[in-house]
Amino acid sequence: MTGIGVSGLAAGIDPAPAGSRIAVIDFGSAALTVALLTVSADGSTRVIDSRDLPPVSAADLTESGLPPVVSAAVDVLRGAGITSPDDIHSLYLSGFAAHNPLVQTAFRPLCAGQRVKRLVPQPVPFAAAGRMSPAGRPSSSSNLPLIIFAVLVVIVVVVGVVVAMGGGDRRAAPDYPTVPIGREAGSKQGVVDSAAGRLYVADDMAKSVAVVDTANRTVVSRISFQDEIVGIALDPESHRLYVASLGDHGHAHSEIHAVLWVVDTTTNGVVATIETGQVGRGVAVDPGTHLVYVTNERFLGYQLDPKTVNVNAAAWLSVIDPQSAAVVTSVELGTSAGEVVIDPATRVAYVAGSRYDQVRGSSNGVIVVDLASNQVAGQITVPDAGLLQIAADFTANTLVLVGSDAIRLADTATRTVDATLRVVGASGSIGVDPVRHVAYVADNGRDGYRLLTVELAERRLGDASIEMGMKLLVGSAADPRSRAIYAFVAGTVMFVPPPQ
Questions:
Q1: Which residues on adjacent β-strands are paired with residue 53?
Q2: What pLDDT, in 10s, does the model give residues 158-212?
Q3: Which end of the chain has fewer surrounding CB within 10 Å, N or C?
Q4: Which of the 8 DSSP states describes residue 304?
Q5: What is d(CA 446, CA 58) in angstroms, rounded to the nearest whole number?
Q6: Residue 66 — φ and ψ, nearest 5°?
Q7: Exposed/middle/buried for 29, CB within 10 Å: 0-12, 13-18, 19+?
Q8: Could you give the CA distance from residue 133 to residue 14 in angstroms, rounded to a whole number?
């Protein structure tokens, strides 16, 4: 793969049975790389085929733009001997599009058990990071003279940039306190209990939630689970934390079940486990009724032709009563569903997802659900967006929608997108301060890593951003009481002081 050594690749891949074949799709800036690996008897991985295709841009990450991308990847895999989804144990997505749910959904039918994961390759020694041959050995492109020449060019360029800037690195890492919370790879989501002084951070790849004492800046507990985490929600009044799982992808042809774990925050122990569906996508709690809502997806059949809309896919919203630890009803949503937020005042749920019918085709955006009747009440269309994350400031009647190419703001009263802020590098979980009406969005763009401030009332980006140096951001959370900001930087939480 371009720029990724086998040792770095293997560091991010979960163990698999010997003989398994694993596909990796890397969305790089120079190429879309499709690689097929095999697992040896000792558990190591070896590249058996790798092809570079034309690069994919953020503009291609739409329902109309993705089918040709998937088709090209399918052609490479077929050329490597893959004839059906059962031939692939798991598929990993890497690069800038790995977190995009549209991309995940598009590639999911290509492997057994819909086992699609995100891969963050680990750094490898420079001499080993050259182009990998099919046997997994560095090719002649990694020879020493070429490396020395490349290093000299980089040094000249860096020195020139520093001189042009007047010396120093304007993106130097800030000296904010940090606390380790989990693995460096993977996404992070956080919820704040202001009254108890606790921050709960879910680490999807570590399959754990870190409980952070925000006053002492220490991790006081780690709660481990048996599956990848897709979302967490907090009900402070009931002293309950709800943790939603992705689902057990170990069996290609059996019913797959995602679960909701109920955690007692006074003991940090799991007190109930509730099956919710096949594949979990998100979770939210209504603080008024204390009901819990989990988004789920189900795949009724494989679909190797990426040019056809997968009408076999289904999504729904499970309504759960935590007192009886049971699903009381389900609301059919459409063909896909992602994160969900609840407006307790109007009893409306907003779900990132898509719907499909034979006349209008597929429509991406936010599905609106009336929780009083448990019926779909409408949709907020988000054009040409692979919707990644959704957050809300209901006191400002605003949804914050972070997609692959922009931050969009939607008015919940009119149910329309009324502001589009073009930020290509935006991603990760979103922190919202409903008192100041500010959202904090991670921007991992060309100008360095920073936390953007979005002025929700004024529908614009804030005048100042919070620089993170060269530290990769995967999300944030905000405490409306103390105004503190928590930035999730790789495997740590960074304590950012309240804005002045």
A1: 32
A2: 333 333 333 334 455 568 899 998 776 567 899 999 999 999 999 887 889 999 9
A3: C
A4: -
A5: 14
A6: -75, -35
A7: exposed
A8: 22
Beginning with the edge strand found earlier in the chain, give each strand of the sheet holding 387-393 in spatial order: 387-393, 398-403, 407-411, 416-421
Q: Do the Cβ atoms of 380 and 410 come closer than 8 Å?
A: yes
What single DSSP character describes residue 335? S
Centroid of chain to Cα 478: 19
Residue 181 is which amino acid? I
Q: Got the DSSP string for 260-295?
A: EEEEETTTTEEEEEEEEESEEEEEEE-TTT--EEEE
Token pair in block for residue 173: 């890492």
Q: In the numeric block, which tokens belong to residue 459?
A: 């529908």
Residue 325: CA count within 13 A, CB half-sphere: 12
Characterize the bridge pairing of strands 416-421 and 407-411: antiparallel
Position 6 pLDDT exceeds 70: no
pLDDT, position 324: 95
Q: Residue 492 pLDDT more than 50?
A: yes
The string of pLDDT tens digits covering residues 302-341 is 444 444 444 556 889 999 999 999 999 999 988 788 899 9
Cα–Cα dist 150/158, whole Å: 12
Nearest CA among 220, 343, 327 for reference residue 280 = 327
Tell me which H or E stretch contains 337: strand 336-343
d(CA 258, CA 261): 10
pLDDT-derived band at 108 (thresholds 50, 70, 90) equals: confident
Residues 6+ away with beta carbon under 8 Å from 476: 190, 428, 429, 430, 431, 440, 441, 442, 451, 485, 486, 487, 488
Q: Give me 97's structure tokens.
A: 């599009």
- The reported pTM is 0.69
Q: How far is CA 153 from CA 147, 168, 232, 404, in A?
A: 10, 19, 46, 32
The per-residue pLDDT for range 441-471, each reduced to its tens digit, is 988 765 667 889 999 999 999 988 888 776 6
Round to whole Å and give the CA distance between 276 and 231. 13
Task: Report the sign of the C-alpha dihedral through residues 122, 84, 46, 254, in that order.
Answer: positive
Which residues make Cβ contacts (< 8 Å) with residue 384, sequence separation at least 6? 59, 62, 405
Q: Quick check: helix, strand or coil at residue 179?
A: strand
